[in-house]
């Protein structure tokens, strides 16, 4: 599993180079027709073993949320903006790394001793401190436009849990690598490690237009809101809608903000899981979105499904995932590639 290496790598939207390099090294002996396109997508093809075989696009995005330096102040502090869905509430006090050199910094805010009346966190009020005493000193270390990532540590927690940054969607990238290394399959696998998902599903659209798949499966990390509800009464434990839970298996999307999953393909994945005794969950909360939102409307339309890994604290410096969920997700994706037939993709 390359997940640790992928998680630690820096790959904020629009600058996924380091992640792409890791993936390329891992898949080059298992695929052909490797290509990096004009916006940075890494695509490759693994020829199948069957006859008259469908071309199935498997997509996972390389980019992560982050920040970008917008200006350097005279006091050596830096203003910044967000790239992707960053929750401002988690930022004060966080350690970060800036630019290609990973310059260390801390996001500062007015201390609580002087700030008791201000409860809301506004990005415009935050600054990054790298220990510089002047604008010129800061400019010797960082530049406007430098990307900023969480300074996080990857950890194995006990025998079941993993913790790290950017599991959305380095876990999908890791799964896709494992799938390719376990191939070939009866179908042609069109692998797409995409860019700029976090800022509008951009890379997937370009990749799908070039690959022209017959079907697509998106591999993602999704929100596991299975933590205690602070508003719950004494007899209520579970949140009203946890979306999904760690340890309950891969998550099959029914719909989200970006798409409605192609019903025959969803039914096929459910049947495949049940036949292989793989636990699974259904995502019915119509929020968020994935690369499937771009893929399913390309060319003349692409039957598309989404298989996700449940992750706690997604879009934060420290996401959690469950080892068994990873193994079950990999097993389901591989079983689906072995069993997928043309008739499943026909409009009912």
Give structural notes.
The chain is built from eight helices and 17 strands. With 348 residues, it is of the alpha+beta class. The protein has two domains: 3-64 and 165-345, Aminopeptidase; 66-150, Elongation Factor Tu (Ef-tu), domain 3 (Beta Barrel). Strands 1-2-12-3-13-16-14-15 form an eight-stranded mixed beta sheet, sandwiched between helices. Strands 5-4-9-6-7-8 form a six-stranded antiparallel beta sheet. Helix 4 packs across helix 8 (323-339) and helix 6 crosses helix 8.
Strand content: 25-35%
What is the radius of gyration?
A: 21 Å
Q: How far is the N terminus from the C terminus? A: 39 Å
By CATH, the topology of the largest domain is: Aminopeptidase
**What do we call the CATH homologous superfamily of the largest domain?**
Zn peptidases
Question: Average pLDDT value?
Answer: 91
The tally of beta strands, per DSSP, is 17
The arrangement of helices and strands along the chain is HHEEEEEEEEHEEEHEHEEHEHEEH
**Mind summarizing the main beta sheet?**
8 strands, mixed
CATH class of the largest domain: Alpha Beta
- Uncertain segments are none
Structural class, judged by helices and strands? Answer: alpha+beta
Number of helices, where a helix is a run of at least 4 consecutive DSSP H or I residues: 8
Total domain units = 2
Shape: globular
Strand order of the largest sheet: 1-2-12-3-13-16-14-15
CATH architecture of the largest domain: 3-Layer(aba) Sandwich
Quaternary organisation: single chain
> What is the helical fraction, as a range of percent?
10-25%
């Amino acid at each position: 599993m390359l997940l640790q290496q992928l998680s630690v790598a820096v790959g904020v939207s629009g600058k996924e180079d380091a992640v792409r390099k890791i993936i390329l090294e891992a898949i080059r002996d298992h695929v052909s027709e490797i290509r990096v396109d004009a916006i940075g997508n890494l695509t490759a093809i693994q020829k199948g073993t069957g006859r008259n075989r469908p071309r199935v696009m498997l997509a996972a995005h390389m980019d992560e949320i982050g920040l970008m330096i917008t200006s350097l102040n005279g006091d050596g502090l830096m203003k910044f903006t967000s790239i992707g869905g960053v929750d401002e509430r988690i930022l004060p006090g966080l350690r970060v790394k800036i630019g290609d050199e990973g310059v260390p910094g801390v996001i500062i805010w007015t201390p609580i001793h002087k700030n008791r009346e201000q409860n809301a966190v506004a990005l415009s009020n935050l600054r990054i401190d790298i220990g510089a005493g002047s604008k010129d000193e800061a400019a010797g270390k960082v530049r406007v436009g430098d990307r900023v990532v969480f300074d996080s540590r990857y950890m194995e927690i006990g025998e079941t849990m993993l913790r790290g940054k950017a599991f959305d969607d380095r876990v999908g990238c890791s799964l896709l690598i494992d799938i390719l290394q376990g191939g070939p399959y009866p179908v042609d696998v069109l692998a797409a490690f995409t860019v700029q998902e976090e800022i509008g599903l951009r890379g997937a659209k370009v990749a799908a237009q070039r690959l022209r798949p017959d079907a697509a499966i998106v591999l993602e990390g999704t929100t596991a809101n299975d933590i205690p509800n602070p508003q719950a009464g004494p007899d209520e434990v579970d949140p009203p809608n946890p979306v999904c839970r760690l340890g309950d298996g891969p998550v099959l999307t029914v719909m989200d903000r970006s798409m409605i999953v192609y019903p025959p393909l969803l039914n096929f994945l459910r049947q495949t899981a049940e036949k292989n005794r793989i636990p699974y969950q259904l995502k019915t909360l119509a929020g968020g979105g994935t690369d499937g939102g771009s893929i399913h409307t390309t060319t003349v339309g692409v039957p598309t499904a989404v298989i996700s890994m449940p992750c706690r604290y997604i879009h934060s410096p420290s996401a959690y995932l469950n080892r068994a969920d990873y193994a079950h997700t990999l097993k389901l994706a591989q079983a689906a590639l072995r069993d997928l037939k043309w008739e499943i993709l026909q409009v009912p």
